[in-house]
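dude i think i finally got it to work??
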Amino acid sequence: MQQLQDIAVRVEAMESAELNHSNALPIMHEILHALQRFRKEDKGATIDLQSIPFGPGDEEELLHLLGRGEVSIALQSLGESSIWETAYPGVWLIDHQNAEGERIALQIEINRVPEIVPSQTEDISDAITRLSMQLSPNAAESRQREEK
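look at this
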């Protein structure tokens, strides 16, 4: 009877290029499913890329696969946020940084426009108040006095 130690085992080394532990492809599949749900149900989705364990080069590979579309937005609020449409309409990459320039969030959002972009109701109310004050007769007189 043959023993376990008598069984020949051959180990073959794989080239590092053959080992693909990248998370880019599974994320692309998740994006596809989110886009399909969005088209069917008109319900957006967000993928938090910072919660996904990226290996060396994974983020770069994902960004390469997503490409860049026609729209990019720079948002200044408690730090800079870069928002751009990928080569796939409805798929947005959002990179948030704090005031020190450190990344605090990296997300993919599936939506017509990222949720962070439209003006908030409170901000619109504030704009109405400030614009009304600026256009009031007293404000015009005050500006004229300042110019003299």
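The helical segments are 24-41, 58-66, 121-135, 137-147.
im so relieved honestly
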